[in-house]
Structures are given as C-alpha cells and as structure tokens.
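Page 37, continued from 36.
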C-alpha cells in the first residue's frame, strides 16, 4: 500500500531558517485538503553547539556532532522516514550524523549543485554568499569542482564587512534583522556578478531569509527552496508512482 513518507527536520541552525524550510515544504505541496499534506517532524534544537568555531578548530570549541546526532536519532525514533538539515555549514559534518541513524539524511549541498548544473548548463562561474567557515571548509567548492564549475567568493574585506556582518553583526540576520543585511548581501552579490558570476548561491540559510530569487537583478539559487522541493518529491514519490 502506497503512503506519504514523513519528513524529519534537524533544525535549530538557525531556528528561523528551520521554520522557513517547513513553510517551503508546505508551499510546494499540491493538496486540496489538510489530510493530503506531508507529515513533518521538526526538532528546532537551538542548543546544538556553534558550528563556526568547531569547523575552524577553535580552542575550547564544543563539538556539535554529538548533539546533532542525538537530534537526528530523536527524529528517527519519532517516525521520520528521512531527514533534512537546514544549515549549509552543518553539512561539513553530514557523514558523522548520517552514521548515527539508519534513515537517509538528504544532502542539501549536493542537491543545490545538481540543480544549478542542470538548470544552468552553460553557467561556468558560480558566485557564493556564505559564512567564512562554509567557504573555508570547501563543501561547495568540492561539489562544484566535480562539475568543472568555477566558484567565486567575495574578497576577504568584503566577506567580513558585508557577508559576515549581515549574518552575525549587531544588526544581522541571526539577531532577527533584515533590512541592513539585505542591503549588504545585495551589494556583495552585485560585486560577484561584476566579477563574472552568472548565478548567486545563497550558501547560508540566513542569506536565504533575505535574498530571494523574486525581485533580484541577479539569479539567486536558494538551497532551502531546492531541498524543500526535493523532499516533497521524495515523500510523495510512492503515492505518485514515481
């Protein structure tokens, strides 16, 4: 008997991006009544230790993997058939988290790269707006290099003064602000386009909250929107006979 699968969302990195992903799952599900929606179990665990310090190997930094793995296990026990993780940087640890559960953990980075290559096959240069550790750990660079695409990132000063300030600054997205971060990130994206970027990846889920494909003068690719569509397709594939 066919059934709709249950999605588990390993959230809290950050909490608002987690909520945005759940909203996107709902928005991408075609239904005529409540009962046709996909079951989604969300653990918005904001107590997962900071990923930035851990990826950089800062002295005294807490390892986020144990709490990420525990969160994944809670979702598995609650009945999730597969998991999503709405944090780009957290995918640096995806292998360790996947090893802690028996159900699949979909890879948002790989899905974003696959979408970009398929949707824009002539695109050779991809711009990335992401936190500095996401750039440094190379999760996007390695994925795009397998498809022979060049990754462009802001220079060190612009990365600090615009991108990191937009995400983590006193008026940043992590603090619930939107207007100043949107302006800073738009400027950084425009400079990448001037350097030859043909598309812009919103490579931090906080960036996804303020830069949208609609209304931007450049092409914005939102990993949250992509993984939401992939998840909906996977959850309903048995029902649809795919």
């Amino acid at each position: 008997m066919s059934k709709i699968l249950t999605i588990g969302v390993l959230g809290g990195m950050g909490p608002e991006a987690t909520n945005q992903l759940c909203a996107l799952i709902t928005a991408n599900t075609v239904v005529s009544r409540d009962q046709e929606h996909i079951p989604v179990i969300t653990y918005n665990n904001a107590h997962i230790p900071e990923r930035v310090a851990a990826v950089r190997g800062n002295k005294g930094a807490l390892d986020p993997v144990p709490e990420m793995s525990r969160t994944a296990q809670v979702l598995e026990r609650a009945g999730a058939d597969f998991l999503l993780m709405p944090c780009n940087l957290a995918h640096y640890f995806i292998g360790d988290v996947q090893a802690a559960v028996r159900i699949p953990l979909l890879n948002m980075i790989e899905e974003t790269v696959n979408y970009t290559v398929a949707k824009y096959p002539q695109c050779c240069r991809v711009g990335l707006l992401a936190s500095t550790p996401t750039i440094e750990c190379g999760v996007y660079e390695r994925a795009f290099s397998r498809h022979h695409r060049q990754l462009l990132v802001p220079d060190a000063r612009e990365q600090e003064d615009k991108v990191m300030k937009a995400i983590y600054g006193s008026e940043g997205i992590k603090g619930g602000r939107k207007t100043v971060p949107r302006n800073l990130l738009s400027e950084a994206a425009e400079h990448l386009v001037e350097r030859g970027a043909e598309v812009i990846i919103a490579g931090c889920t906080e960036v996804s909250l303020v830069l949208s494909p609609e209304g931007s003068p450049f092409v914005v690719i939102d990993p949250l929107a992509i993984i939401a569509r992939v998840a909906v397709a996977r959850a309903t594939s048995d029902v649809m006979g795919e």
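The two ends are 14 Å apart (CA to CA). Flag for discussion at group meeting. The chain has a mean pLDDT of 94.
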